[in-house]
Design brief:
Elements lengths: L1 E7 L6 H18 L2 H9 L4 E6 L2 H14 L3 E5 L11 E9 L1 H8 L6
Parallel strand pairs: 1-2
Antiparallel strand pairs: 1-4, 3-4
Helix pairs in contact: 3-4
Length: 112
């Protein structure tokens, strides 16, 4: 069981902004996961891997793939209070789900 969080590198987010967006994505996807998946993932140490893409379009393509596979996911849009314009899509969380299910969605992406 794991979760991947995919963040946009093209936005040039500072370290704190990146951390906040990754946290938002992670929590949102966990809230959408089934109780069984969430409990199992939490019992196995809550594995998270942060990956990167270079465009908003890539996040939506990955979200479509996750949705078609029945894997929980969450897209994050920034509120625009600090570094980014309101509504900027910053990150996508995939899972928690079985490793192989998550890998079918994000397994080819590089680490952030």
């Amino acid at each position: 069981m794991k979760q991947t969080i995919v963040a946009r590198r093209d936005l040039g987010m500072g370290a704190g902004k990146l951390a906040a967006q990754v946290a938002h994505a992670s929590l949102s996807a966990v809230e959408d996961a089934s109780d069984r998946a969430r409990t199992r993932w939490q019992g196995e140490g809550q594995t998270k891997v942060v990956l990167g893409v270079d465009a908003e379009r890539e996040l939506f393509e990955l979200a479509d793939t996750a949705d078609a596979a029945g894997v929980p996911y969450a897209i994050v849009r920034d509120a625009g209070r600090t570094q980014l314009e309101p509504g900027t899509v910053t990150a996508l969380a995939v899972g928690p789900a079985r490793d192989d299910a998550v890998d079918r969605v994000t397994g080819d992406l590089p680490l952030y």
